Amino acid sequence: MGNVPIFEGQGSGANLTQVVIFKQIWLNSNKKSYVSGLFLRKFMQTDLFFNCFAHVLAKGSNKYPYFKYYAKNIVLLTPGEHALLDQGTEEARIKYTFDVKSANWQPLYDLRDELKEEYNQYFPTRRGLIINYKYSSEEIFSIVGELNARFWKSKQNLSL
Questions:
Q1: Spans of all domains in the chain
Q2: Quick one: CA dihedral 6, 7, 11, 14, positive or negative?
Q3: Beta bridge partners of 53
């Protein structure tokens, strides 16, 4: 998975957590893009490898920060598709489907909508009389840990 310095500097624990999740996703995947079905093995052992892992609900927008480590929220894409998802326009994504005939963004959009509902269910912005409730690290890890356990169990049941 490359020589990523995962134990150095501030935030190294977060980097390690993300790398472990990425490895688990990679090992349990078909190594193909979620959007186009293109094989991603050519990116292994390259500087672009980690660009193959895309958060469906963007971690950088701070709208859905608690799903950063939720495996269901991370899909495999080509680095170009990842850039189109994060910075591209809808027009650019449509053009991509003309260039890459196997590309279909709709399943990704459907997953995004499903994840938004799930996020609002498990992390409502209001708890009792408290508006904009801030979850503790323990609450986040407990909820996301349970969601990840269910996600991986469902993946295991699909492969049986």
A1: 12-158
A2: positive
A3: 76
